[in-house]
Automatic annotation (TrEMBL):
<keyword id="KW-0547">Nucleotide-binding</keyword>
<comment type="similarity">
    <text>Belongs to the ABC transporter superfamily.</text>
</comment>
<dbReference type="Pfam" id="PF00005">
    <property type="entry name" value="ABC_tran"/>
</dbReference>
<protein>
    <submittedName>
        <fullName>Aliphatic sulfonates import ATP-binding protein SsuB</fullName>
        <ecNumber>3.6.3.-</ecNumber>
    </submittedName>
</protein>
<dbReference type="InterPro" id="IPR003593">
    <property type="entry name" value="AAA+_ATPase"/>
</dbReference>
<keyword id="KW-0067">ATP-binding</keyword>
<dbReference type="InterPro" id="IPR003439">
    <property type="entry name" value="ABC_transporter-like_ATP-bd"/>
</dbReference>
<feature type="domain" description="ABC transporter">
    <location>
        <begin position="1"/>
        <end position="225"/>
    </location>
</feature>
<dbReference type="GO" id="GO:0005524">
    <property type="term" value="F:ATP binding"/>
</dbReference>
<dbReference type="InterPro" id="IPR027417">
    <property type="entry name" value="P-loop_NTPase"/>
</dbReference>
<keyword id="KW-0378">Hydrolase</keyword>
<dbReference type="InterPro" id="IPR050166">
    <property type="entry name" value="ABC_transporter_ATP-bind"/>
</dbReference>
<keyword id="KW-0813">Transport</keyword>
<dbReference type="GO" id="GO:0016887">
    <property type="term" value="F:ATP hydrolysis activity"/>
</dbReference>
Length: 249
């Protein structure tokens, strides 16, 4: 059963078409990466799918219970502690303080934060700890669907790798489905079951490739070999490193 279905979605900003004919489906427990060049419309698709933007055309069907979002910037509240930041979605849904504290502690631990971090403020955290806090906040409500919008682009290579492992482990443990937006093909191959490639100008999904095995079960050599195979031998990926802002009419 599909949890998210977009059918012939089209959108324009200020009269300029940025998306046309976007059709995709994501099933329960499936992590789907969406790749494409900068400016091709990946974030706009996620915003439309999550209901943040009303598309100009097309249909959206969501049958998930609850979604969460993780963005490139952790977007933490600077005046609140790690525990309060993580527990914030539960506060919005009026859970009592004791429930919030217990759930925030468990989500923090699952995201690799230490009990001593719970009382810290965002300014005291490293970039990785901030992003771990954002992931814990996303997962504290036990979503069955998560939107990741280039969450690790700003992190260095080693940290990025640890955060990807965190997403893989969390998705397997909590069995949420996800739309994972990235322009890093290694990342897409590492974290997802299936990769969708957006057309260079957002005119439809150019194609998709299903990856062998489950995320987390692939070794680094196989991931690297797959990336090379896609980039050098698969025409679907020929455009993904283009900067389409210069091409777009
Ligand atoms: N709020 C907005 N108002 C006007 N134009 C916008 C807005 N948001 C996005 N755009 C334009 O829509 C197009 C698609 O942007 P979008 O951010 O979805 O692309 P992207 O593939 O996610 O890019 P990147 O990989 O660089 O984040 C771009 O040309 C962008 O300039």
């Amino acid at each position: 059963m599909s949890l998210l279905s977009l059918s012939r979605i089209g959108h324009a900003f200020f009269g300029r078409t940025v998306l046309e004919g976007i059709t995709l489906e994501i099933g329960a427990g499936e992590v789907v990466a969406l790749v494409g060049p900068s400016g091709s419309g990946k974030s706009t698709i996620a915003h439309i799918a999550a209901g943040l933007i009303e598309p100009r055309e097309g249909r959206i069907a969501r049958s998930y219970r609850r979604h969460a979002m993780v963005f490139q910037e952790p977007r933490l509240m600077p005046w609140a502690t790690v525990e309060q930041n993580i527990g914030f979605p539960l506060r919005l849904s009026r859970h009592p303080r004791s429930t919030r504290r217990a759930a925030a502690g468990a989500a923090a631990e699952a995201a690799g934060l230490l009990p001593a971090d719970l009382g810290k403020y965002p300014v005291e955290l490293s970039g990785g700890m901030r992003q771990r806090t954002a992931i814990a906040r996303a997962l504290v409500t036990a979503p069955d669907f998560v939107y990741f919008d280039e969450p690790f682009t700003a992190l260095d290579v080693a940290l990025k790798r640890r955060m990807q492992d965190l997403v893989i482990a969390s998705a397997a443990r909590a069995s949420f489905a996800a739309l994972f937006i990235t322009h890093d093909l290694m990342e897409a191959i590492r974290v997802s079951h299936r990769i969708l490639v957006l057309d260079r100008l957002g005119r439809g999904i150019a194609g998709e490739r299903r990856l062998a095995g489950d995320p987390g079960a692939r070794d680094e050599a196989a991931i690297f070999a797959q990336r090379q195979a896609f980039l050098t031998g698969d025409p679907l990926f020929a455009h993904i490193h283009e900067l389409d802002e210069r091409l777009r009419p």
